Amino acid sequence: MSLSIWLGALEQGLLWGAMVLGVYMTFRILDYPDLTIDGAFTLGAAVAAKFIVAGYNPWLSLLLAVLCGALAGLITGLLHTQLRVAPLLSGILTMIALYSINLRIMGQANLSLLRVKTIFTWAKGLPALGPFGPALLGLLVAALVLILLYLFLETELGMSIRATGDNEQMIRSLGVNTSTMKLVGLAIANALVALSGGLVAQYQGFADIGMGIGMIIAGLASVIIGEALVGSQTLVRALLAAITGSIIYRAVISLVLQLGLPPTDLKLLTSLIVVIAMAFPLVRRRLGLRALRLRSEQGAAAGQRNQDL
């Protein structure tokens, strides 16, 4: 594979990294199966693309996409906390509603950004960076998001959100409003997802109504891969694992496509990657126990031989 292929995988992994952090926020920290992510990703792309085409600054358009993503997360949270809708169903309802909303925003199924300036137009235009401009921009955005999310989760509010996911009844007994914690957590998670959607739309040069389909699976695959390779013993390692998993996942996708897999089979490949990543810790644990048992049996046999002698 050429350098451009690996560089493209790195760029995509970093740009999708904010989405993976959003998935980590809901599934790992809040313990909330939020399917809003598929719709929020497209929402971020649609809002960013629409405002850029209308002549707004690309960075401002990205900020507006983040705010719309946070609003989508709030709606999901309100359905759950105020109307007592089950977490899974609340996300599905918002995701379905966002499909029509995204079509309304774009006015069509696909919105092109090829003839307008985006943040990547600026990055590619820097002569000192050359072809590495988008990758460095993606790295800066991913690093900034990771640092801000870490600092937030270390605050008292962030600790309360983490405690809500760990043990909701316990933290409620201490006087914390867990409904508010869920609302804040879901808003931040979907804001990150929408940020990723806005970045990806500008990177690819278009926003499409179907670009968010399967994002939740891709995010879960990235989180699980990262945790299997990097670990999640501390918050810093867990956040770094999410970004690392996103890069590895995109690299695997690029490699398999180069080997001749039809693009139509990508969803099947994603599902297989998730299954393998989820089975990896279990297989590793079983192999470790088997090796430990074998060493124990060998030690017992050696001890018995010594007694016979």
Could you explain the architecture of this structure?
The chain has 309 residues and is mostly helical. It folds into 2 domains: 3-260, ABC transporter involved in vitamin B12 uptake, BtuC, CATH 1.10.3470; 268-309. It contains 13 helices and 2 strands; from the N terminus they run αααααβαααααβααα. It has a two-stranded antiparallel sheet. Helix 3 (36-53) runs antiparallel to helix 4 and helix 11 runs parallel beside helix 13 (266-308). The model has no long low-confidence stretch (mean pLDDT 88).
Q: How are the elements arranged and paired?
A:
Blueprint: H1 3-15, H2 17-29, H3 36-53, H4 58-81, H5 87-106, E1 110-112, H6 119-124, H7 133-153, H8 156-166, H9 168-173, H10 178-204, E2 206-208, H11 215-229, H12 235-258, H13 266-308
Antiparallel strand pairs: 1-2
Brief overview:
With 309 residues, this protein is mainly α. The protein contains 13 helices and two strands, in the order H-H-H-H-H-E-H-H-H-H-H-E-H-H-H.
Q: Quick one: CATH class of the largest domain?
A: Mainly Alpha
Which sequence of strands runs across the widest sheet? 1-2
Shape type: globular
CATH architecture of the largest domain: Orthogonal Bundle
Instruction: Provide the helix percentage.
Output: over 70%
Please trace the helix and strand order, writing H or E for each element: HHHHHEHHHHHEHHH
Domain count: the total is 2
